[in-house]
Amino acid sequence: MKNKKIKAKIAGIEVNVKEGTTILEAAKTVHIGIPTLCKHADLPPTAGCGICVVKIKGSPKMLRACCTPLENGMDIITQDPELVEVRRTILELILSNHPNDCLKCGRNNNCELQTLAGDFGIREDSFEKLLRNLPEDKSTKTIELIPQKCILCGRCTNVCQQIQDVWALSFLERGFYTRISATGDIELAESPCIKCGQCSAHCPTGAIFEYDETQKVWDALMDPDRFCVVQIAPAVRVGIGEEFGYPPGTNLTHKLYAMLKRIGFRGVFDTSFAADVTIMEEATEFKRKFEKDKKNLPLITSCCPAWVDFMEKYYPDMIEHFSSCKSPHQILGVLSKTYYAEKNGIDPSKIFMVSIMPCTSKKYEITRSSEMSSSGYPDIDVVLTTRELGRMIKQADIRFKHLPGEDPDNILGEYTGAGVIFGTTGGVMEAALRTAYKMITGEKLKDLEIKKVRGLKGIKEATLDIKGTKVKAAIAHGMGNVGTVLEKIREAKKAKKETPYHFIEVMACPGGCVGGGGQPYGVNNELRQKRAAGLYSDDRGHKVRCSHDNPYVKELYKKFLGKPLSEKAEKLLHNKYKKRPVYKR
Amino acid sequence: MHKSLKKIDEIRHCRKQDSLKETIIVGMNSCGIAAGAREVYNILEEEIKKGGLDIVLKKSGCLGACYAEPLVEVLAEGMPGIVYCNIDKSNASKIISRHFRSGEILQNNVYSFSEGLSPKKNRRKFIFIKDTDCSSSDKEDEYTELFLQEIIKTESSSMVHAAKTEVISLYNKGIAVKIWPDNIVYAGIKKTDIPRILKKTVEGTQIDSLIHKAGTEKYPQIVMRNCGRVNPEDIEDYIGRGGYTALEKVAGGMTGEEIIKELKVSGIRGRGGGGYPTWQKWQFARDAQGKTKYIICNADEGDPGAYMDRSVLEGDPHSILEGMILAGAATGATKGFVYIRAEYPLAIKRVYRAIEQAEKYGILGKKIFGTHLNFDVEVRLGAGAFVCGEETALIASIEGERGTPRPRPPYPSVKGLWNNPTVINNVETLANIPEIIARGGKWFSSFGTKNSKGTKVFALTGKVRNSGLVEVPMGITLKEIVFNLGGGLGSGKKIKAVQTGGPSGGVIPVKHLDTPVDYDSLHKLGSIMGSGGMIVMDEDDCMVDVSKFYLRFCVDESCGKCVPCRIGGFQLLDILSRITHGKGNDDDIEKIKRISHTLIKASLCGLGQTAPNPVISTLNYFKEEYIEHINKKKCRSGVCHELLDYSIDQNPCRKCDLCARTCPVGAISGNRDEGYKIDPVKCIKCGECFEVCKFGAVIKK
C-alpha cells in the first residue's frame, strides 16, 4: 500500500510517482512548470490563491495542482487558453486588492507577485482598485507587518503556527475583510512573537519585512567621530552569495571581509571567533555540571535569541538549565568595546558595532536586557540581516566577482572549524562536544565529525562516550520540534527520573541559522542543506577545528579574561533569564 | 428479548391506548412560539384544568404552515380531526367551549382536517370548502357563506355544518368541497349546486356527476412525518409513532452492508445541496481504514429564508438521532456530532434533550439494544458562519480551527474529522434514513423521479401567499408548488420567476414553471435543488437587485481564504452595485462573465464555485434588465431607487402641498393654484413624496 506507484500523464509526458504525490510535485519531476503563488516548499498547501489550476483531459473542471494528489491514469493539462485566462483573472483580482507601489516596496525586484504580474504581462488595472487602509505594525523593531500588501497566502501563519508553534500571527475577520495580524488584534510586540522572522522569509510580497536599519549604518559610516566595526555571523558567508547569483552554499568569507572594508568598516571581525569563545564558556559550564552537579543537567544552549524569548515565555521552568552564555555576536560586541578597544587604544564610546546576522531576532536581542550593555556600552549598535547587507552592497555597487579575498582584523577575527559550524543545526552541539570531551578527558576526540548531530531531521539524538559515561545529546531546530524534547525533560523531572538528555541544542529556525529569518528569500530544504554544506566544508578546510585550540582565544583568556567562567567572563559574557508573559496585555 | 427492546414494546402499546383519547396538540416550534403558541398553550391548559376535562394537551413541532401560526390540532370524539390556524389568545378558549362542548367548528380557522378519533360516532356531518383555482381571487369565503345560509334556510344545522379550509388536497379544480365523514369530494361546483349538495349530504347520498374521481394530491410526508404530531421533547411519543423501528431491525440482525444496500435501492441523494448518493458516502466510510470513525449531522443551515432543518430538529429530533445511529451501524462509526448553529436555541435544547433521553432508554451509549453497537452523540455549536456548512470547513470548526474549507480530496468519508473517516449528512437526509430502513428502500424509491427519489422539503417564501414548509415528492412541478401549496401569489401581481437553491442557486423564469423539481432538471436550468430554499418573485422584483442580494450574502459569508471568492466575489458585487446605482459601464457584463467564470472554475469550495449562479442565471434569462440598467439607467421593477424618476401626475393631484413640504431637498416647486412639479436634477430619489401622497399623484418609474 505504502509504495503504490501512480502512473499518469502531465502535459502529455508520462510520470511515475509515489501514491499521494500532488500534481504540482509530479509535474516538477518531469520539469513541467505550473505557476504558483501561495504554495511554499516548506509548507503544506493552503490552496489559497488558485493560480495553480490545471485540468484533466475531457473534464471541464479545474483542480488545484498544489493540493490535488495525482491519480492513476489522469491526463493532466497544465496549459490551455482557458487556464491562462483564469490564472490571469485571479492574478488581476489579487492586484486589484494590492497597492501599486512596487517602486517603493522592500520587495521590489524580489517579489513573487511582481514576478507573476510580469510573466502574465499585466499592463493595466482591469478591475476597480479595492484597497483597504490597514494599520502597519512596526512594534517589534525587528519585522514590520504591512497588511495592505498581504495577499493572504497563509504562509506566515502556517510557518508561525505549524512550524514554529508560536501562534503569534493569525488571520482576523472574514471574507474580503480578512487580514493578517498579531493574534488577538494586538501589537506584535505584545504578542507571543519570538521575532524569528520566518514569516518574513516566507512572505511572497512585502507584507512582512525586516525592520530596515541600513540607513543607520550608512549614517554611522559617514560620521568621522565613529569607529565603525562589523562582524559577520557564520551563516551569512554561505547565504549572501545567493543575492549576487552565486550558487547556494558558496562560501564568500574572505570576499566579504574585503567588501566590508570597502564599504568603510575600520574593523572587520568574525562572529565565528566569538563562537569559539562561547564554546569555551559553555563547555566549561557543562563540565562543571557534568562532574559535580549532574542532577542539574541538561544544559541547554542559549545562542539563539528567538529560542531564548520562546523559553522565557513558554518554558520558564527550564531557566535553571539554560547556559548563561550570551550569544556569540553579543560576546564579540562586548569584547570589541573592551578587549579590542583596550589593545588598540580606541575610546569604546566611539566604537560603533554592526552585526551582520542571518537573523531578525538579533535585532531584538541587543536590547533585551541591561546585560546586553555589560561593559557600560551597548554590546551591539545595529544588527543588519543578510538581506539588508545585500542591499548595502548593491548600493555600494562593488562586485564580489572581481574582489580579491582579504583577512579579518585580529584580534577578533580568526576562527576555528568549530566556530563556523555554529551556523547550522547541530553545529553548536558538535563544537561543544569537541571541546567538552577535551576538557573532561584531557584527550582529543578521535573523530571530530559527529555525524549524528548533523542533517535536517527535526529532532536528532546522539550519544557520546566521555570517560565511560554516556553523554546523551538532543538537537532540535524549528521551534515546533522543541516542545517534544522539553516535554520529555519535564516528564522526567515530574517523575523524579534521570534526565533523558544531558545536553540540548536548540535553534529556532528550521535548519538553524543557515535557514534564518534574515537570510535571502526562497529558502527550502535543498537550500538549507547546501548552505550547511558550505559551512561543513569551511570546517574541514580549517587546520584548527576545536575552539580550545584557537590561538587568539587562548590569548584572550591569557591576557584579558583569565579563564572561562572567571569573574570578568561572567560579568561580560554571561547573562540571566526571567519569566516573561506570553501576552504583554 | 433485551430489556430495552421490551420497554419499547410496552411504550408502543401504551401509546396506542393514549392515541384514542381526546387530544389537543399545539405546534410549538420557533415559528409557533414566535406567533404566540406558548400563550395559547397556557390558556388551553388553564381551561382544561378549570373544566376538569379529560383532554390530553401536547406540544409538538411545526406542520409547515408557518404563515398561519399558531397551529393547534384538535381531536375530539365524534368530530373530524381539525388543525386550526391563527389561534391566539382571543380564540384559544373557544377550542374548549365551542369545539369540545358544542361540537362546533371555529369556522374561520380551519387549516386542514382529518378522519379524527371515531368518525362513526359523528354528531353531524361537515362540509369543508376550498377554492382550488390558481387565480388570485379566492371565492371560498363567498361559497362558505352560501352554504351556511343554505343550512339556516333548510334548518339542517343539527345535521350538517360548513367551514372553509386551507388545505383540501386538490389543485386547480375550481371550488372543491369534501364531506366528512363520508369522504365524498366534489370539485368544480357552482353556486347552483349548493342546495342539492346540502340535501344529498343530509340524506347520506351523493351526486355522482359532481364527484371528483381523479383522486386527490396527497403528498407523502416522510421527512416531516412526525413534525407537528409528536412531542419533540418526549422520546416515548416518537417511539409510539414507530420511532426506532429501524434500529430494532439492526438489533434483529440487519448488517451494515444490508443497511447500505437498502439506501442504494432507495436511491436517496444528499439533501444538503450537493445531491451526492448517500449510500456511496457511507460505503466509502465503511471501507475506509480508521480506528475511530465519525458521523456528523450537518445542522448548520444558513441559506437566507431556509429553515427546513431547524423545523425537523425542533419537531422531530429523534429521527435525526436514529439516522445517525443507523449511519454508525452501517459504517462502524461509534461517535456522532450534531453541528448546529447557535442561532437555533430551541433546536439545540431539543436535541440535547433527545440525546439525554435516548441515553436513558439505552438507545445511545454502549451495547445498544444488547447488540455490539456502540454510539454516542455530542452537540457542537457553530457560530453562524454560512461557510461552516461546507463539510471541510465544518470539520475544521469542530476541530477548533478557523472555519475555512480544506482541499478535497481527501474526502471526509476517507479522511475527515481528526483525519478519521467521517460521514457528514445533512439533517433532512438523516431524517429520511429511519423510514427507508423501516419501510424498505423500494418503498422510498416509489416516490420521485428516475434519478431523484423520495421527497424534498422546501421553504417556500417570497411573494407567495402561503409561506412555510412544504414536503413534496420529487418531480412535482414548480407551478404546483407555487400555486397549489403556496396558494399562488399574494401580491396580486404576475409571477416573474422562482429562485431555488438559495444563494448557490439560480432563478427560473416563469416560462419554465412546468419544470419538474428534481436534481437534474433544476441543474439544466442553471439552478440547483440546494438545501431547499424557494423564493417566489413577481414583477416588482428587479432581477439585477435579486442577483445582488444573493451575491452580497455569499460575499459576506466568504471565509476569505481563496482569491477567486474573496476578491472576485467582492469585485462582482461592486460591479452589480454600480449597475443598480446607475453607474454601469458598457463592459460590465463582460467583466461579470469573466469574474464569474473564474469563481466557478477556480474557487476552492462550493460557496465560491456556486456564488455566481444567481448572477449568471439572471443574466441568462433577464439580460434585457441588465442592459436597461446599464444603458437606459432604468429599473423596470422600480426597485433600484437611484434609477427611478419621480413626477407628479396633475390629474389625481389635489394640490395639497404635502409633497412639497415633505421633500427634504426642496426639489418640488409650485403652488396650490398651479400645482406642483419635481425638479429631476434636485431630486435625490428618496421616495418621501411618493410615500406621503394620499392621492397616488406621485408617479415613480
Features of this protein?
heterodimer; A: alpha/beta; Ubiquitin-like (UB roll); Alpha-Beta Plaits; Fe-only Hydrogenase (Larger Subunit), Chain L, domain 3; 5-stranded mixed sheet; 4-stranded parallel sheet; 35% helix; B: 701 residues; alpha/beta; Glutaredoxin; 16% strand
Topology, please?
The complex is a heterodimer of chains A (585) and B (701).
Chain A: E1 5-10, E2 13-18, H1 23-29, E3 53-56, E4 62-64, E5 75-77, H2 81-96, H3 112-119, E6 143-145, H4 155-163, E7 169-172, E8 179-182, H5 198-202, E9 208-210, H6 214-222, E10 227-232, H7 234-237, H8 253-263, E11 267-270, H9 271-292, E12 299-300, H10 305-314, H11 328-344, E13 351-357, H12 361-365, E14 382-385, H13 386-396, H14 417-420, H15 427-441, E15 459-466, E16 469-477, H16 479-494, E17 503-507, H17 525-541, H18 551-561, H19 567-573
Helix pairs in contact in A: 9-11, 9-15
Chain B: H1 3-18, E1 23-27, H2 30-35, H3 37-51, E2 56-60, E3 72-75, E4 81-84, H4 92-102, E5 110-114, E6 125-131, H5 140-153, E7 160-164, E8 175-180, E9 184-187, H6 194-203, H7 235-240, H8 245-251, H9 256-266, H10 278-287, E10 294-299, H11 308-315, H12 317-331, E11 335-341, H13 345-360, E12 376-382, H14 391-398, E13 422-426, H15 427-439, H16 441-445, E14 455-462, E15 468-473, H17 478-485, E16 495-500, E17 506-509, H18 519-524, E18 533-538, H19 543-557, H20 563-580, H21 588-602, H22 606-610, H23 613-621, H24 623-632, E19 646-648, H25 658-662, E20 668-671, E21 675-678, H26 688-692, E22 698-700
Parallel strand pairs in B: 1-2, 6-7, 10-11, 10-13, 11-12, 14-18
Antiparallel strand pairs in B: 1-3, 3-4, 4-5, 6-8, 8-9, 14-15, 16-17, 16-18, 19-22, 20-21
Helix pairs in contact in B: 3-4, 8-15, 9-10, 9-12, 11-12, 11-13, 12-15, 19-20, 19-23, 20-21, 23-24
